[in-house]
């Protein structure tokens, strides 16, 4: 009996020692996005994702046009929006007519990615916030999350948001 218990305990200890240097670092969740459905905005989508990757470390956005969980599309009316569970899965629709009005496509892409990362809209916020969306008007070209937005996403994903209970899909606009 004592022997068996000692063996059972020994294995996790050995693993713990082997991985000790990484033990204090949070696990990184990689989310894959596909942009081939929005061919006019490939560079803007990549920049929006890069802006998130520069701001947070718990979750990473990587382009992959097969088996992506975040999928970009292009539409031509009705306003940009995303249908997402806020847990790294969603369909993002970028409206070319909204871009023609003067709204910045990189900011739109980064904003919709923000929804997929778990952030709600905050239209009354300043241009320095991504989730203020269309609120600050067409003059606002900021496509980077604010420090508070980055901190919120970082905290949401610290243990891997996808591992938590899945939320219902819902549509949210730019
Ligand atoms: Zn929105």
UniProtKB/TrEMBL annotation:
Keyword Protease attributed: yes
EC identifiers of the protein: 3.4.24.77
Covalent S-S links between cysteines: 127-140
Active site: 112
Note describing how the cofactor binds: Binds 1 Ca(2+) ion per subunit. Binds 1 zinc ion per subunit.
Signal peptide positions (record): 1-25
Gene Ontology terms: biological process: proteolysis
InterPro entries listed in its UniProt record: MetalloPept_cat_dom_sf, Peptidase_M7
Residue positions binding Ca(2+): 104, 106
Co-factor(s): Ca(2+); Zn(2+)
Catalytic activity: Hydrolyzes proteins with a preference for Tyr or Phe in the P1' position. Has no action on amino-acid p-nitroanilides
UniProt entry keywords in alphabetical sequence: Calcium, Hydrolase, Metal-binding, Metalloprotease, Protease, Signal, Zinc
Signal is among the record's keywords: yes
Transmembrane parts of this sequence: none
Domain of life the protein comes from: Bacteria
Residues bound to Zn(2+): 111, 115, 121
Annotated Gene Ontology cellular component terms: extracellular region
Family: Belongs to the peptidase M7 family.
Name the UniProt record assigns to this protein: Extracellular small neutral protease
Organism of provenance: Amycolatopsis mediterranei (strain S699)
Source organism phylogeny: Bacteria, Bacillati, Actinomycetota, Actinomycetes, Pseudonocardiales
